[in-house]
Amino acid sequence: MLLGAFSVEALAHGEEQSSAQLRCASTFGHHDGDTFTCVPEPGDDAFIVRVASIDAPETGQGYWRMARSRLRELAAPGSTVDCYKVDRFKRRVCRLRTPDGRDAADLMLSEGLAWYPEDYASEDAPADRERYRRLQMEAQETKRGIWTVPEPMSPKTCRTRRHSGMSCH
């Protein structure tokens, strides 16, 4: 289902609005583990998606390539995005479902390839918040992905350090 003109207009201006689900006929531009480009149908305008409810390692951090590779698998043609806002970088923030209907945030968190960003937890339904927190905790306790590293640096901390001219690990 395509976004109506009103919904596209609201998204273009970064307004909160009711979500609209789109199918990605093709995807590309997987810069990292939580951002990619979706093309709804051949000939339609592509748009950048920021996957909601996860924060994957920044480029150059440990596990960033693995997170990016996993996102390429999850955001395959036929996946769907349920977009509900536009962020300050003009990316649509969307919940991502794989072509077989699985929640990509569930998978990335349970595999230890992303953090659950508490700063944006209010955007999630209470049941989703609890599930995402539980999946992250289980990945931490079983030392999967980023949680195999002692004291892994969050992407948020990495971005802050980079803005200050410092490096991340």
Descriptors:
169 residues; alpha+beta; OB fold (Dihydrolipoamide Acetyltransferase, E2P); 6-stranded mixed β-sheet; 6 strands; 18% strand
What would a concise description of this structure say?
With 169 residues, the chain is α+β, with helices and mostly antiparallel strands. The chain contains 5 helices and 6 strands, in the order αββββαββααα.
Q: Which CATH first-tier class would you pick?
A: Mainly Beta
Tally of separate domains: 1
Structural class estimated from helices and strands: alpha+beta
Give the averaged pLDDT, no decimals: 88
Q: Which stretches are poorly predicted, pLDDT < 50 over at least 5 residues?
A: 1-18
Number of strands: 6
Describe this structure in words.
With 169 residues, this protein is α+β, with helices and mostly antiparallel strands. 30% of the residues lie in helices and 18% in strands. Strand 2 and strand 3 form a beta hairpin. Helix 3 runs parallel beside helix 4. The longest helix is centred in the C-terminal third of the chain and has 16 residues. The radius of gyration is 16 Å and the shape is globular.
